[in-house]
Amino acid sequence: MITRTTQRRSILIALSLTLLIAITLSLAIGSRVIPFADVIAALTNPRDGDNAHLVVLTQRLPRTIIAVVAGAALAIAGTLMQGLTRNPLADPGLLGLNAGASLAVLLSIVVLGWSNPAIYVWAAVLGAILAAAIVYGIAARGGGGANPITLALTGAALTAGLTSVSMFIVTTNQQALNNYRFWSVGSLTGRGIDTITAVLPLALAGALLAVIASTRLNALALGDDIAQGLGHNLTTSRLIIMSATVLLSASATALAGPLVFIGLVIPHILRGVAHGDYRWLIALAAPAGAILLLIADTIGRVIAQPSEVEAGFVVAFLGAPVMMWIIQSKKAVAV
């Protein structure tokens, strides 16, 4: 008889192998297909002046790493957010993170005159962190403290307010529109290894906090009273979970823009496999999120040659029908 643990391990191994395949395809496929042997040679023994090696190392390797980091971070962040708010339809944007990052990027363009997408990362990180701090601060002042309901309502209200300000800036400033629209659609290009190394520590710190938060999420899922009875401080637990979500979402948004559906769909697909155990759900969500974004980016390179379709569009195209299928399936089960 196959145990749940054996099943989970098998799926984790399968996801890890699929991730390796997706990474290989991402490095090999584009407007020009590069043989796998040349990809391996470029990574292990690059030759000066070899165009194939140059493409792999300077173009495809950075965007592949960005897809892995951003996809994994968003999937974990979505898992944390759904556990924190006890809302199966929650995603990192619920705390106003995407709206805060977007407004910060726009202000950096208009006020500071920044025009390089690689520099937007710092504005996006700061904006996401400030938005989350405002949401938590306002929610914590309520009579019931920063509970799932107040966090969700405060995040929705802040998102609406920040989005309206962003739309005002975009519609009244042509320069802001021209620069912002490239970043906002979810692009993995225009960033180098230096950008990745700058943001990677934030993502790793968020992942470490997510691992710490996993047992607390398991306790919170049983209810506040039971969690307290098990010795967990509700305020500390929620602060750890929020901090992990903010770091993961901020780093992913800074690298790839405000991508949608990854943090929403991935936890839904894997929840039945994890059987409510957030330790396993987080472990499975990381490679699954990376795979989804890698596949979306690879598809976007080839479906409209010689142009490219940004990864954000492809993710939305793939994620929307999956999400509708999940909703219909749950309705069918409920009936």
From TrEMBL:
Pfam families: FecCD. Keywords: Cell membrane, Membrane, Transmembrane, Transmembrane helix, Transport. It is a multi-pass membrane protein. It is found in: Cell membrane. Its main location: membrane. GO terms for biological process: siderophore-iron import into cell. CDD domains: TM_ABC_iron-siderophores_like (cd06550). GO terms for molecular function: transmembrane transporter activity. The chain crosses the membrane at residues 61-81, 93-113, 119-139, 151-172, 192-213, 239-266, 278-296, 308-327. GO terms for cellular component: plasma membrane. Belongs to the binding-protein-dependent transport system permease family. FecCD subfamily. This is Transport system permease protein.
